[in-house]
Amino acid sequence: MGSGRGRGEGAPVSAPPQPLLSVRHLSKSFGPVRAVDDVSLDIYPREVLGIIGDNAAGKSTFLRLLTGYHQPDAGEILYRGRPVRIASPRTSRRQLGIEMIYQDLSLAPDLRVWENAFLGEERRRWGVFLDVRAMREATAGALAQLNAPISPTELFANLSGGEQQAVAIARALLFQREIIIMDEPTAAISVNKVQEVLRLIGDLKARGHTVILVSHRLEDILQVSDRIAVFAHGKIRRVVPNQGLRVDDLIRFMFEPE
Nearest Cα to 254, choosing from 58, 52, 98, 109? Predict the structure, then answer.
């Protein structure tokens, strides 16, 4: 006699998560140079995706396609399975919840912390007057979420590199960005502040955000990433789970022959 267990019985099999953002056969050229060449990739909710590659591997152009700074020559981008056209950085931020934090942060050193947190998206009363009190309080609340002891009234230029990264991340929290892209966040900060930034990345994931981390510091990628996408010559060479990998493995992936 059989076991009596019909098809479909037994322990339920959980469905794989649906991608939050997907790209399919994405390409972008500048004159004769194919900067991004037929790239396909799924990015999932609540993950840290590390992106690595040598200089001119296509990483920066790929990110600029995701954030609307460039338009693809071919391929498509899907948000929650729906094709979208990311016409501008404003579209990526406000409609898709994508925030790009550049290595140079693109913030104003001569302004206060709260002014940078709301730069370009200031709150106003009656549509006219700046609501300074509300912006200061909101900035303080976002920094407190990150356990970053920074005064909203401090001059941005007076902050350390790690503290400046915290302000940029707080800005993403204030505007409820779902996907936060970080370009070399530890490249220009002191060694003793690197762990603070990596802790912030872990906090973002714990709060439900998706983080795309680009870094030449392979140790940082290994410390915080769930998966790692390896770019070379405009293509994705491979996407691997971050399980038991070492720096030597990543270097080999980056430079292995096609």
Answer: 52
Whole-model pTM: value is 0.85
- Domain membership flag for residue 243: yes
Q: What is the mean pLDDT of residues 78-84?
A: 94
Q: Which residue range forms the structural domain that includes residue 199?
A: 21-255
**Which pLDDT score, from 0 to 100, does residue 1 have?**
44
Within a domain: 209: yes
Residue 101 within any structural domain of the chain: yes
Per-chain mean pLDDT for the chain: 88
pLDDT digits (tens, 9 = 90+) for 35-64: 999 999 999 999 999 999 998 899 999 999
